[in-house]
Amino acid sequence: MPRPTKVSAAAVRKAAAFIRGGGTVVFPTETVYGLGADALNAKAAARIFEIKKRPHFDPLIVHVSSIRQARTLAHIGPEAEALMKRFWPGPLTLVLPKKKIVPEIVTAGLDTVALRMPADPTALALIKAAGTPVAAPSANRFGSLSPTTAAHAGAQLKNGPDLILDSGRTRIGVESTVLALRDGKFFILRHGGLPREEIERVTGRLGAALKGGRRPASPGQLLKHYSPRAALRIIGKTPVRLRKGIKYGYLAFTSRPAAAVGCFRILSRSGNLAEAAANLFSHLNELDKAGADVILAEPVPARGLGLAIMDRLRRAAAR
Ligand code: TXA
Ligand code: MG
Questions:
Q1: pLDDT tens digits, 248-270
Q2: Which ligand has the shortest distance to the CA of 191?
Q3: pTM for this one?
Q4: Ligand nearest to the backbone CA of 142
Q5: Cα–ligand 2 centroid distance for 146 (angstroms)
Q6: Residue whose CA is closest, atom 10 of ligand 1?
Q7: Domain map of the chain by residue range?
Q8: CA–CA dist 202, 197 (Å, integer)
Q9: Rounded-to-integer distance, Cα 307 and Cα 302, Å
């Protein structure tokens, strides 16, 4: 595994050269780190699946540096264009009818492609310098926590990428919100960094989030996902009974736990959901590293970024 390289103009040029040459690069976005390859090169995209140990039925998000570039990849109607103009660059992914140019492996054979223009300056510079759209899932091993630091990405992708670009911790900390357009109506496929309420100001009421389950509308929405190594339990109304011999970690929302647990982390002392989202994966990772067998997680309010946080906690808790 290459050591992370601090972001600089030279490092971005080098990363872009790897992408153009069919290689893979870990790079920061404002949500989480991504593992990128040339989206128009099927062989390069295939390496992503190999490195992540990701099943081939789970399609990738294609990252672009402009709406113009997005048009080369998908059919974009006025509804989608309005959202792009309002929220790009930013943590919004749109699933749209694909054009032929996008290789099947990228979309897992679907007739749609997921597109996003990231806001992170390094990500944008990389896509521009590569001169090609960049397919990139989160830079974690399939099913594990998404990385919010370069080191966390590197630790998960042992024999993988050609280069790891490091620009410190990501700002948002949870993945982008994924929206699909069906029969002129948008649906949330994955809650994420762009809160539903903000999207609804443009679209009006969104269709209910499509459920996961055995045949999820979005192949990546398997119930068990985004998991720490430790087992995770979301605390309900009944008080928790701690069992002897088990090392507990505790993920609190705003204040330290009353229960006598080995280690704990607080998502946001002021109850700020954006701060909580930014801390979510790194705190879970730290509780893992502290050796917790079971992580007890407090629920957070289900609004704004709280929707994305609760979605990730529920998936981590699924078994
Ligand atoms: O914030 C993010 O979105 C990060 C950064 C790196 O941009 N990327 C990311 O990618 O989270 P990934 O691959 O971990 O998640 C992409 C999600 C998956 O749930 C996948 O199934 C879904 O998007 N997806 C991709 N293409 C799709 C399609 N054509 N139809 C439905 N769902 C799709
Ligand atoms: Mg992922």
A1: 999 999 999 887 788 999 999 99
A2: 1
A3: 0.91
A4: 2
A5: 6
A6: 137
A7: 5-203, 231-317
A8: 9
A9: 5
